[in-house]
Structure prediction request, 271 residues.
Amino acid sequence: MIGLSWAMLTSAIEWAFLVPAFPFWQPIFTLRQPYWVGFIVHATSASIYRCFPFIRDWLGGFHSEHNKRFAYDWTNAVPAGLLVLGTLAFLGNHGREVAWLGRDVAYDQSYIRRMAAHHRQGVEIAGIGGDKAGDPHLRALARMMAAGQNGEIAILAQWWRSWFAGEVPDATPDEHRRMLGMIATDDIARLGKAQPADFDRLFISLMSAHHQGAIDRAYDALTKAGDPRLKSMSYSIGYEQRGEINLMRGTVPGLPAVQEALAALCSAGAP
Prediction:
């Protein structure tokens, strides 16, 4: 209990104060990574704390069956856990993910198809921003957006191959037209031809609208998606893209970034 409490405290300090404020001033960490990710990392590290009494006993020449038993169990559990996770990762990479877990297959299939199509357009727009943005921070953020969305497309494709077989079908032309946040082809062409003085403002406007569409779709999946992995990924997509909108609009490091991150953390899925 002490270890878990300590993990909660240290991860909160890291997420809310240390990284987004002094001395690092990096709001991108807090705005793109939900708090619970850091807590899991710290809690996993805290699991070793109860091995310290065994080390103390061993160095001091004492004997405690209780401490010895915990250290023995821990040193066996960690390799076993890594083996299980590694096996799941290996099988998933070869189209053998754990079977789809849900009730409404039609919704999950539609969600994957639409989100993959939405992300592909996001990668296209972000690629233009990564090449042409005048502000170096915006240019780096655009490249990170492209990398992140390409990674999420790969995950969705891997799940589809494992759950439903074959490659992810593209969204239909009608779905493209009706999807929230999809940017018209003419507007993307206009962005590519924009003059340097106008480019950053236009990029932020188009990408913010595109992100908002993904946020709405992701938060809708929190209540409607069947498979829990889709729900978890949807939460992450909604959180990170809301954070990226704030970053594009010039979030100030420190307390303002933390306030925006807390608002996103507490309002995920809210209408």
Observations:
- The CA atoms of residues 115 and 214 lie 7 Å apart.
- The chain has two domains: 2-93, 105-267.
- Residues 65-93 form the longest helix (29 residues).
- The chain is about 75% helix and 0% strand.
